[in-house]
Write a structure and sequence with these properties.
By secondary structure, the protein is an alpha+beta fold. 10% of the residues lie in helices and 23% in strands. Strand 3 and strand 4 form a beta hairpin.
Amino acid sequence: MPLEAGLLEILACPACHAPLSDSTTADTPELVCTGEDCGLAYPVRDDIPVLLVDEARRPA
């Protein structure tokens, strides 16, 4: 289930404070930082974004 648009408007990357975009696929629900130098991907578990830098996936 995709995240609500209103929720995405207020969420920001905890590392660089850039907006997040919903990059959810069938296999991997996640929010990706839109910052040019950051790009961390935060997991979404049970429809709850886990916005912890230690849990984020580094960009490829």
